Amino acid sequence: MKKRVAVYISLLASLINAGATAQHKTIQSEISNREVTLSPQIREQTHRPPAAPLPQNIMQQFLSHNMVATEAELDAAPYVLGGQEGRLLVALGDDFYARGDFIRSHITYGIYRPGQSYLDPATGELVGVHAKQVGSARIKQINGSIATLTATGSSAELRRQDRLFLRQDHGRVTAVYPRSLDNVIEGQVLAVPEGLRKAGFLDIIALNRGTRHGLSNGATMVVYQVGNSIDDPITDQRMRLPDERIGLLTVFYTYEKMSFGLVMTADRPLTVGDRVSNP
């Protein structure tokens, strides 16, 4: 290692500008008695260009059709009763009935179908319920807690118990720039949406960490494959192999208890249960 040398300066002469010409003055070191000449110079400083933002089209497409709700939010949301003439399924353009606490100033709703319940693998806590948008509707009239609506959009037939939420602007995400975190956050891959088990480059995965853990949009996380447990062939001792770094992701949407991230690199498929941490 290089030794740090402290030099005490007894006399410091500053640069004196005479018109456009910089005059040199000298300083004398108390330790070395050496004269050092100062002269103006251009100092180069490396400038690191900002990281490119995440591809917005992927995030917008996902957030426009997916959301995470709490059990309380699902219980409080209006729900589909059925179509006219007792039909159980509703198609595009059909009128149908829904029941709940409607906001009269809002006439457009998104229709969501509750799906996978997200459980924190470390604690077993329910951190959210995934809901996929299956359509949209416009209110025609409200009679007490019963509303008549027209299906204005659908990606599947609407069913009884589908939930109605106000149309949200989740799809209109602002630019998300990858960045590092100051605090250490450890977590796990909670799920791969659409019921898949594995994810790769530019796929979206859910994490069991959210805003309450200090996570925020743009946070870059490393993904590790958890090492397998094996028996040592010599000692017969049970041991765990080291975790291996297999990918990198950037968080782009956070909830209180969980978040969604976009896979930026993947050396091998990422799976549910993989460990995530700061780089």
Structure class: mainly beta
The end-to-end distance, rounded to whole angstroms, is: 27 Å
| SSE string | EEEEEHEHEEEEEEEEEEEEEEEEEE
Percent of sequence in beta strands: 35-45%
Helix coverage percent: under 10%
Residue runs with pLDDT of under 50 for 5 or more positions: 1-34
Work out the number of β strands.
Answer: 24
Relevant terms:
disordered N terminus, mainly beta, seven-stranded antiparallel β-sheet, 2 helices, 5% helix, 45% strand, elongated, 279 residues, 24 strands, six-stranded antiparallel barrel, single chain
Short description:
The protein is mainly beta and 279 residues long. Helix content is 5%, strand content 45%.
Describe the structure.
This protein is mostly beta strands and 279 residues long. Helix content is 5%, strand content 45%. The chain has two helices and 24 strands. The strands form seven sheets. Strands 6, 7, 9, 10, 11, 12 and 14 form a seven-stranded antiparallel beta sheet that branches. The longest helix has 8 residues, at 56-63. The two termini are 27 Å apart. Residues 1-34 have low confidence and may be disordered.
